[in-house]
Amino acid sequence: MPRRRDKDHASGPIAASQRQLRVGEELRHVLAQLLRPGELRDPALRDASVTVTEVRVSPDLRNATAFVMPFAGANAGEVMAGLKRSAVFLKGRVAQMVELRQVPNLVFAFDAAFDNAARIAALLARPEVERDLHPPPDDDATG
C-alpha cells in the first residue's frame, strides 16, 4: 500500500527517510575509499583527488546521486567525464563492499556548495552588507 502524503508536503520537498540517509552515508564512505588517487585506471581519475561531499539516494533506493568536488576544482570537466565513464564499474565495486539487496545506479554531480559558500562570504564581506550586519549602538537608548 503506498504511503499517504499530506497536502502540506505536496508543494515542497519531502525529507529523506532514515534509511535513505543511512544508505547515502554508507555509499559516501565507500565511494570516498574507491576514489582515492591510484585506485582507478581511468586516466582522468588515476591521479585525481576527489572529495565525495554527499550522496542522495532516491526513496526507492534504486538511484543515488553522488556530489563530488575535485581537489581545488582542478580539471573538473575531465574528472566528471571520467566518473561518468566509470559509474558502472564503481557500482560493481560498491556491490562487493556494501550489503544491500540492490545497489543503486550511480550518477555523479559536481558539488557547487563550495562555490556558493565563497560567493555568500564575499557578499557578507561587502561594506554595505557589513554595515547592516553590525549596526552602530543607538545613543538614544541609554537615556
Please outline what is shown here.
This protein is of the alpha+beta class. The protein has helices at residues 18-34, 43-46, 76-97, 113-125, 127-133; strands at 50-57, 63-70, 105-110. It is built from 5 helices and 3 strands, in the order ααββαβαα.
Protein topology:
Elements lengths: L17 H17 L8 H4 L3 E8 L5 E8 L5 H22 L7 E6 L2 H13 L1 H7 L10
Parallel strand pairs: 2-3
Antiparallel strand pairs: 1-2
Describe this structure in words.
With 143 residues, the protein is α+β, with helices and mostly antiparallel strands. Helices cover 44% and strands 15% of the residues. The chain has a three-stranded mixed β-sheet with strand order 1-2-3. Helix 1 packs across helix 3.
